Amino acid sequence: MDTPAKIAIVTGAGSGIGRATAHALLDAGWAVVLAGRRREMLEQTAALAEPAPGAEPRGAEGAPPPRTLVVPADIRDPAAVAALFGRVKETYRRLDLLFNNAGTSTRGIPFEDLTFEQWSDVVATNLTGSFLCAQHAFRMMKSQDPQGGRIINNGSVSAHVPRRNSAPYASTKHALTGLTRSLSLDGRQYNIACGQIDIGNAATPRNEDTARGRLQATGRVEAEPRMDVRDVAKGVVYMASLSLDANVQFMTVMATKMPYIGRG
Known about the structure:
Blueprint: E1 7-11, H1 16-27, E2 31-36, H2 39-48, E3 68-72, H3 78-92, E4 97-100, H4 116-143, E5 149-154, H5 167-187, E6 192-200, E7 202-203, H6 208-212, E8 214-215, E9 221-222, E10 227-228, H7 229-241, E11 250-254
Parallel strand pairs: 1-2, 1-4, 2-3, 4-5, 5-6, 6-11, 7-10
Antiparallel strand pairs: 8-9
Helix pairs in contact: 1-7, 3-4, 4-5
């Protein structure tokens, strides 16, 4: 039997950082499960992927499963997450990497104007969704043979310092750091490594307003430099490429000239 390719799940794979990372992992020879809420965007990610050399994983009947697998899933829904990981186990029999990337924000709503629903949606997506995916990944990685795998959480530089009017997003990203540390500790005995990539100003469609102007700590609205999203993807692929004897616990990848250092 051929050596299986490594298997990754990327959440939020329909656009932006998720799409760029899925493509970079495919280029590096991984098989990638594309998860997200919008099927058409996931299928576009798969269609845009360049074929890459590498060993094909084999399915239970010996036929090679696809190098990309589109699985629409709302990570806020425990049943949808369970179905996602069930498809992965059925198709590939194992999991080597989870990139917990999917996230959302309220984008500039003053703290006093936030509704309970807006707060709850950000918490459900960024924190609870990441927990649900990580828990299913942890269970698979613990029980599979060979044992182990890697979980990478998308923390954002907001895991360290907030922007103005971003309490739900900053709170959940700070909480993700606690999840990352807990998974790192609890996963040690099972060869499960967990790290966090903190990203600042990647040039994605969701971040276009940053190039036009964002509210600064001073109260001024100023445009901010952005970086190529492919540079973020390279960081994730590097973290994923390490043996399970090594771990990047935290990596910050940011636009060099963004007003992050000294923000606030």
